Amino acid sequence: MSSAITPTKVSTTSVVSPKTRENICVVCGAHVAKCENRRRLFKDGKKTPSCEEIEFAVGASLDPFLHTHVSCRSCSNRASTLLKHLQQFRQQFKSTRSTIGTKEEVVKRLVPCENQRPSKRVLFDATNTKYSADLQTPSTGCETVDMVDGDVLVMIKYATSGTRTYKPQHNIKNLVKKMVTTSAENAAKDLLSGCQLTDAIMKQLCCKINSELAGLCSLTNPSLLRYAGVDSLRDFSWANLLKELQDRTPLFLMILEAATKNPSQNRNKLKKGESLVPKVMSAAAHVISIYNDDLNTVRRLNSVMMKKGGLKKVAIEQLAAQYVCVGYGCTSSMLEYFGRTRWNIGQGEKER
Fold first, then answer.
1. How many domains does the chain have?
2. Phi, psi of 107 (to 5 degrees)
3. Are 20 and 38 contacting, i.e. CB atoms less than 8 angstroms apart?
4. At what angle do helices 297-308 and 313-321 cross, to 10 degrees?
5. pLDDT tens-digit profile of 64-123?
């Protein structure tokens, strides 16, 4: 008796369809549904910079007919970071190669002998025993400075007492050395990396910011954030507030912009430049209102919009506790005053 054979059917399906090519990462294969979490590899038949970075990282050429058309943001950032580190590594190698093997010629200006006429003008006259002694023996007052290997000495020339040499304290010796041997950026990094002067500098910066905010609260030159009636709300704009902070509180604005600057904003076409001005200025107005409760123009504008939008009293009071708006009683009184002065609230909100 012959055994029965079960019929079979073989079908072949494609894992990547034309629709899924726009949602699957070409590197990790993850499904990326949101468009803000993925990067395009091809645009108008040409490869994008993200595509070139990934090609360099994986060592292969991407074909739009054989591969997917997007990569996730994580893989794109990893490829960009890898390329940047490799470029820095190569640049460091070229710089080291150019310096090794070269000869450095150092010319020192010395004090000439009595019978020898110098070809160039010397810094000090050899006949002046006062300056000659200062050149030969570093001194602070009348005492000789004891020097050991690795010490740093600072020479200061005075118009009346000649040149004097001082030995800096041990805790700032490395800082003084870097200030005269490296760039200003490296010296600044060393200054903020644990030196005892760091706390003093931070304290002075805080005092400077506090002084700027105190000047912003002046009544002789009132700020745009100080409520002065209907006109102060009608004429308010984020651009005018930005210009005022640039002129009156530059250090405070610089620190606030640094705190809100994200490297990913350079790749975003919408969330950068002028589109960030209302957000940064709103945060600045919030902080300044905490410093001085009278600088509450932005909080009053928020209260008008919340009341016009039908927000309930409980929600307004909770937001007022967070300094987002003013209290419910103040909002009602302000709107009643606007009604008595016949101010068009809708027009004022449109201008804002």
1. 3
2. -110, 125
3. no
4. 160
5. 777 888 888 888 888 888 888 888 888 888 888 777 766 666 666 655 555 555 554 444
